[in-house]
Design a protein that fits this description.
The chain is an all-alpha fold and about 70 residues long. It is built from two helices and no strands. The radius of gyration is 17 Å and the shape is elongated. It starts with a helix and ends in an 11-residue tail after the last helix.
Length: about 70
């Protein structure tokens, strides 16, 4: 089930992940070997969150009993 509460919770988790990434990035004075991989994974997370947000909005705006139509 898709709800705004779940979407909000996932958005908070993504923001926490972004903060952790920024903090680690500022502390990476030696250029960690996996830094580019970590950046790409964060991008993937953002993309998946955006897809999920679109699904939630679509589900919330669909009238039950009407096939594929939006309210």
């Amino acid at each position: 089930m898709f709800t705004l509460a779940e979407l909000d919770e996932e958005e908070q988790s993504l923001e926490r992940l972004r903060r952790w990434y920024r903090d680690l990035q500022t502390r990476d004075v030696f250029g960690a070997a996996n830094a580019l991989q970590a950046q790409e994974r964060l991008r993937e997370c953002v993309g998946r969150f955006e897809d999920y947000a679109e699904q939630v909005m679509a589900a919330l705006h669909t009238v039950p009993g009407r096939s594929g139509e939006s309210a």
